[in-house]
Amino acid sequence: MIQLEYYLIISAIMLFAGIYGFLTRRSTLAILISVELILNAADINFAVFNRYLFPEGAEGYFFTLFSIAISAAETAIAIAIMINIYRKLRSIQSDRMEDLKW
Q: Which CATH class for the 4-100 domain?
């Protein structure tokens, strides 16, 4: 059986990669992918802690499934917003979003 620390290390790497990508990228698509990395890191933690703390329970898995459903809905809405922004500005760079204010 794989130890808890290995899962937590993978989750931490995904979390920090997502935060780094969110703070440094200019493309809204890259920012969306970074947010998905952060949410997937949280999903891994839900599943792993459920397995190690409550092996007979399924609450962590339900939280993970719920989070995946929310992530899918968030992605669909974000892509729809990006398509509308691209139609208006012909770019999905986040520094061009200032043009949408007025």
A: mainly alpha
